[in-house]
């Protein structure tokens, strides 16, 4: 376990990040919630991070990413709530891996959204981290302007793609819906997990090309690795929304059943 909040990959191990100066641009990032040494869908987070590194930096960097991931897990405290982040920053000779050991922020059950009206700020929509810093700046501006917690990004045709920090899902009666697969966005681990649970439970699923206005009167969720599913309580200058009592709590509980230990417990030996 490390007392260092920021660590850098140096050859074959993580060391304290004590280098002054500005950080290289963020290229790939992944975060997940850890509570008392347990996390949801950790293998999917690892797969997404390593695969994204491979896409942008090649197989050699992907091998390093896998080693960084395993070392990062060893740095996490066994107790408490944490929201670590692994990063690939820079390119070529300036490329470096960084690990942030961060306490988890306070969790919430609801969120306010607003539709982003400008040009798409995402440079590589399918890679988590590539535009994260730009998106965070836009979220901060939206929070100051309208009190929204997240911005909703649209496809070139005006269909819902994703939030800056969330994936979006909605209910049409008993049908769980999400953006059509051809709409470019990050492959959300939490949305994948909820979809897998819905499939196992026999819940009907739909992938749609939908504008914000077409969600009028529906229950909408904003989901991510930190909070799980959250109810969208308000959409600034957007559609009025609804909530079926008890449904969010039920699915949050179902999602929590997927928590597993970061590492298997050591086997007991008989003397």
Characterise the protein shown here.
This protein has helices at 42-57, 59-74, 132-146, 189-200, 247-256, and strands at 6-10, 13-16, 26-31, 34-35, 38-40, 81-82, 85-89, 96-100, 110-115, 150-154, 160-163, 167-172, 175-179, 205-208, 219-224, 228-236, 259-261. By secondary structure, it is α+β, with helices and mostly antiparallel strands. An eight-stranded mixed beta sheet has the order 11-10-9-16-15-12-13-14. Strands 2-1-8-7-3 form a five-stranded antiparallel beta sheet, covered by helices on one side. A hairpin with a 3-residue loop joins strand 15 (219-224) and strand 16 (228-236).
Major β-sheet annotation: 8 strands, mixed
- Outline, from the CA principal axes? globular
Tell me the helix content. 25-40%
Relative strand content: 25-35%
Number of strands: 17
Spatial extent as radius of gyration: 19 Å
CATH architecture type of the largest domain = Alpha-Beta Barrel
Helical/strand content category? alpha+beta
**What is the count of DSSP helices, taking H or I runs of 4+ residues?**
5
CATH names the topology of the largest domain as D-amino Acid Aminotransferase, Chain A, domain 2
- Distance between the ends: 29 Å
Mean pLDDT equals 94
Uncertain ranges: 265-271
Strand order of the largest sheet: 11-10-9-16-15-12-13-14
Q: Please provide the ordered H/E string of secondary-structure elements.
A: EEEEEHHEEEEHEEEEHEEEHE
The CATH top-level class label of the largest domain: Alpha Beta
CATH superfamily annotation of the largest domain: D-amino Acid Aminotransferase, subunit A, domain 2
- Tally of structural domains: 2
